[in-house]
Amino acid sequence: MKGNKAMKLMIVLLAVIALAGTAVLMAVTKMGNAKEQEAPSADELAESSIDIPEMTTNLADGRYIKIAFKIQTDSDKARAEAEKRDFQIKDVIIEQLAEMKAADFKGKEGMAALKERLKRDINGLMQEGKVENVYITSFILQ
């Protein structure tokens, strides 16, 4: 009798482990497919992005910067909204730059931090989608 109960328990445990393994495998496969689909083509990037032309502004330490951006959105609606809000986006950029010093632009980390702050602030303005990425397309520090 005890051997029969132990055998049933072992079969149930094996079935649970097999189901859990299958679920994990399916989840990993779906995540892999989602990552492949997330990478937009060059044409899709161009269609969902807007240019912020080169602008010149003062930094907090008295120096000045000339900088231009390309802002990638997640949809055509978001791109259209960003185009309409370009004056607000420029305002956000100027506010961020006015608080920075030339030393803040040293290395990759400084540029990455600026792009993340701009992405966050611009997304705060958006209602029809969101900003996926901010690219610096021109940069001169004087």
Automatic annotation (TrEMBL):
Main location: membrane
Role description: Controls the rotational direction of flagella during chemotaxis.
Any Pfam family: FliL
Keyword terms of this UniProt record: Cell membrane, Cell projection, Chemotaxis, Cilium, Flagellar rotation, Flagellum, Membrane, Transmembrane, Transmembrane helix
Annotated GO biological process: bacterial-type flagellum-dependent swarming motility; chemotaxis
Source organism superkingdom: Bacteria
Protein family: Belongs to the FliL family.
Protein name: Flagellar protein FliL
Membrane topology, record value: Single-pass membrane protein
High-level lineage: Bacteria, Bacillati, Bacillota, Bacilli, Bacillales
Organism listed in the record: Geobacillus subterraneus
Cellular compartment(s): Cell membrane
A cellular-component GO term for this protein: plasma membrane
